[in-house]
UniProtKB/TrEMBL annotation:
Protein name as it appears in the record: Ribosome biogenesis GTPase A
Domain annotation G: ranges: 123-176
Positions bound to GTP: N131, V132, G133, K134, S135, S136, G174
Localization per record: Cytoplasm
UniProt keyword Lipid metabolism, yes or no: no
GO process annotations (BP): translation
Protein keywords: Cytoplasm, GTP-binding, Nucleotide-binding
Length: 296
């Protein structure tokens, strides 16, 4: 699959809104998908956020491999980032996110006090790619209390802040980068439902993903798709899945489109087990030949 380019007008506006709102933000909560923490990270965000502290929330941790999530948390910590695994549906990890937000806000409170100013609520932006679990996390952080506190001066109209105790939370539109040059990044985002399926050929995405799924969950792939061993021919593999699951066109021909959609749906719903599609980079060796900080 070649590079994916999908950056409609509303995405341009969303990026501008995020950039404008960041001027008033104290802490950024960046939401990524725990099943693909690198692919679901927006590389523009570090530049947009500047020196503001960030908490990386790895959403959908309940669908990811726990060992891989632990490895990613250590990797992100070694990069100087605060990271927390989150299952917003059950509320797991949400308290930890709030604790880290308040901890990172403490220097601002100290600075205000040193200047003789009273503390104010921490202003927190919750940001991430579309459909990554951002709004679900914000709802959990707000505890269902979504009382709005109005717009802030200097911020694009329409962005609303939600007051929750000593925090003011801001949910901004999801933002994508204009183009994913790495084909693997593109198909991972499509496979997880972060990029809309309409922009790519779904059978190609599913076929590219099958070797990963077979390596990670061979038993589940055999049981649910009827595939044994790595597929030599992606088109033949999709045809086999279609026959195995009874996805046939008139005349008994296998329906590759429906088979591909089935594979992606079962991945997203966790029917193949708890899978992580990306592993963190290996830590660089230290001067003594051992792993550096955060190694595993």
């Amino acid at each position: 699959m070649g590079s994916i380019s999908w950056f409609p007008g509303h995405m341009v506006r969303a990026r501008r809104q995020v950039a404008e709102a960041l001027r008033l933000v104290d802490v950024v909560v960046e939401v990524r998908d725990a099943r693909a923490p690198a692919a679901s990270a927006n590389p523009d965000l570090a530049q947009l956020a500047g020196r503001r502290p960030r908490v990386v929330a790895l959403a959908h941790a309940d669908l990811a491999d726990p060992a891989a999530t632990g490895a990613w948390l250590r990797h992100l910590s070694a990069q100087g980032l605060t990271a927390v695994a989150v299952d917003a549906a059950r509320g797991t990890g949400v308290r930890e996110v709030l604790v880290e937000v308040r901890r990172l806000y403490e220097p601002v409170v100290a600075s205000l006090g040193a200047r003789g100013r009273l503390p104010r609520p921490a202003r927190v932006m919750v940001v991430g790619m579309p459909n990554v679990g951002k709004s679900s996390l914000l709802n959990r952080m707000a505890g269902g209390r979504r009382a709005r506190v109005g717009e802030k001066p200097g911020v694009t109209r329409g962005l609303q802040w939600v007051r929750v105790g000593d925090l003011e939370l801001l949910d901004v539109p999801g933002i994508l980068v204009p183009r994913f040059v790495d084909p693997r990044t593109g198909y991972l985002l499509v496979a997880l439902g972060i990029v809309r399926e309409e922009v790519v050929d779904i059978p190609r995405v599913a076929a590219a993903l099958l070797p990963d799924l077979q390596a990670l969950a061979p038993g589940a792939v055999r049981e649910r798709f009827g595939l044994e061993g790595p597929p030599a021919d992606p088109e033949a593999a999709l045809a086999q899945v279609a026959r195995f699951r009874g996805l046939l066109r008139p005349g008994g021909l296998p329906d590759a489109d429906r088979a591909a959609a089935l594979i992606l749906r079962e991945l997203r719903e966790g029917r193949l087990g708890r899978l992580t599609l990306e592993q963190p980079p290996e830590p660089l060796p230290g001067p003594d030949g051992c792993s550096g900080p955060g190694g595993f």
